[in-house]
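Shall we go through a protein fold together, starting from nothing but its sequence? Please make up or recall a protein chain and show it to me in full. Go ahead whenever you are ready, and we will take it from there.
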Amino acid sequence: MRKLALIATLLALAGCNTVAGVGEDVSAGARTVQDMF
């Protein structure tokens, strides 16, 4: 589980170059999870 979280974090950071981009990605992920419930 810990490795999966680390890999997901690294991919998110590699996918965007700015802190604002990371924030947007996290927000989008949270909205997706919220919509599942």
